[in-house]
UniProtKB/TrEMBL annotation:
Pathway: Cofactor biosynthesis; thiamine diphosphate biosynthesis. Gene3D superfamilies: Heme oxygenase-like. This is Aminopyrimidine aminohydrolase. Its EC number is 3.5.99.2. GO terms for molecular function: thiaminase activity. Belongs to the TenA family. Pfam families: TENA_THI-4. It comes from the Bacteria. GO terms for cellular component: cytosol. The keyword Cell division does not apply. The lineage of its organism: Bacteria, Pseudomonadati, Pseudomonadota, Alphaproteobacteria, Hyphomicrobiales.
Length: 229
């Protein structure tokens, strides 16, 4: 697991990770991820998760594209434009493999509405990317990258193999994904260095809310949550 020892002692990311460590621990140990690691997660729950995650990735890609447009240098522009492409094209190929195994076609996906939590998280990211300055947008996007990388490696370390969810585990525990995450952390820290105290406070608020929504997303899949009315 990452901690302040591998980051700048006074960096935004070190502070944000430390402040939200209890929520990360709650995510790491929640029933969904425990069952995913030991291979006992029901197909019904994983199917719910993958359908909602496919919806989420479209919104995540749009938020990344907005962040790219707001980037304060060309490196950031290229980085987040490419990340938007990866979110929509590469990660969705992982979903396509699972969808095929579950017998889910494009029409079935389109007929499945966003869950309340997926809708909330997606709306939060797009609204933050549109309305907030570049550093705050990055802070809102960072938990999805970082928490998935840490959870992926944590699950890999305790996973039963072979596992029906090996493809998911290998994607998020892989070195390529971790290198991309470290680059996003570094860009967020650079953006924070020039931020005012007020913007830094908004960055921490955005990071905290996104981390809470990460927990809620997995919990929603575990409960097979839908709209109550």
């Amino acid at each position: 697991m990452s901690d302040g020892s591998t980051l700048g002692a006074h960096s935004f990311s070190a502070h944000a990770w430390g402040r939200n460590l209890p929520t990360y621990e709650a995510i790491r140990t929640m029933p969904f991820n425990a069952a995913l690691a030991d291979g006992t997660l029901s197909l019904e729950r994983f199917r719910h998760y993958m359908l909602q995650d496919a919806h989420y990735l479209i919104a995540f890609g749009r938020a990344l594209a907005i962040a790219a447009a707001k980037a304060d240098d060309t490196d950031g522009l290229v980085q987040f434009a490419e990340a938007a492409k990866v979110a929509v094209v590469v990660e969705r190929s992982l979903h396509a493999d699972f969808f095929e195994s579950f017998g889910i076609d494009a029409d079935a996906f389109e007929r499945t509405p966003m869950s309340p939590v997926c809708h909330h998280y997606s709306s939060f990211l797009i609204a933050t990317a549109y309305s907030e300055p570049y550093p705050v947008a990055l802070a809102a996007l960072l938990p999805c990258f970082w928490i998935y990388a840490e959870v992926g490696r944590d699950i890999l370390g305790r996973a039963v193999r072979p596992n029906p969810y090996d493809a998911w585990i290998d994607t998020y525990a892989g070195e390529e994904f971790h290198e991309a995450v470290q680059a996003v952390i570094a860009t967020t820290d650079r953006a924070a260095m020039g931020a005012s105290p007020a913007v830094l406070a908004r960055m921490h608020a955005a990071y905290k809310r996104a981390t809470e929504l990460e927990w809620m997303f997995w919990d929603s899949a575990w409960r097979l949550a839908d709209w109550p009315v």
